[in-house]
# Entry
Amino acid sequence: MSDNHTEEQHIGIPGYLIVFGILVIGTVATYLVALTDLDSKLFPGANTMVALLIAFTKMTCVMLFFMHVYWSKKLIWLSAIASFFWLAIMFAFTMQDYFTRSLGQFTY
Amino acid sequence: MATHAETLDHEHHHPPGLQHQFDDMGQQEESVSIGMWMFLVQEIMFFGGLFTVYLVFRSRFPMAFAAGSNHLDVVMGFVNTLVLIVSSLTMALTVYFAQKGNRNMQVILIILTMLFGATFLGVKVVEYTDKFNHGLVPVTGLNRIVRAPAGAEHAETPAKPCWEVSHGEEHEYINPRGEFLWHDCSLAKKAEDGKYLTAAERVGYYNQGTHEIDPDKFRDKVRIYFWIYFAMTGLHALHMIIGLVLMTWLGIKAWKNTFSADYYMPVEMSGLYWHFVDIVWIFLFPLLYLLGRHFIAHGG
# Structure
């Protein structure tokens, strides 16, 4: 039965430690960036954009290597990516409503 | 891949952990992981609903959200993020040693994972207690109740308007009905002065027809932030508690030396759940704790 496991389906202990290091660096970076006022230096919302970008990078590392998606079947890749697609639909359809409402109706 | 004949041939000594409805371990592993991933997809949609609520209200009242966020303890949030990342590492290593069939390392790492998970929850308890003590739980009656001292009625009129209250200023805590309390609307004033207060916020914060911030209206918007904070971190903490129960079960199985290179899927699947909960926190930390830090970072 071990024929399914002949090729290594993980990155080994050094690899896990590297991913862990990336996650720690990402956490420190999120904190430091949050103290810098990018909103006025770059564009409004830049702080949030950078924070989300770092969060997405950390998430991708966790999913690919800790959750072994990298070695998984295409069906697993599909479910992982599709979940974010559904999430994007929920966000987009909700916000196209709120952004196009006239002011004062919702805000009481 | 085992043929049908081979499967029948080996029926009298099939591998440990193979359920009878599956032909072989490969088929079982595939079914198990797709089932787990379907569960995780619906979990993403479950939390996604709360993230949508966050998106809607934060885009409406960014300054109230920033004000509420700045009141959280960023050090505790930061420490908890690190604690969860370490627990994710120990969980990933648990799977690694399960695949190697190393019982002792599995048990040690599962206990470590549980310790880090419990540490996370402990810090969360400290934070929630702090909210309770400062009147920041958005449910009337669920905050610490302190009656005004006798003869202090005159002191109840606030000394200054809410926009002159500086961040982190201490207030005498008087809360006879355990209400949600908020004193500081300086961020809204700052946004107004900086000409980046949105039209929606003006409607939301100002007294009707004036250009004066109504402390009560601003407080209600901060209260929305704290509702979202408690709903999201509360649901996340519930997932952590379920994770700890799962780890207990897993630890007992590992102790009994159940897992090997041929059968380790329970460890792998519990790991997926644990990492998912970690990922949710990776987003909650910047979105709840850090969103308004740059407004006050330089003494502003």
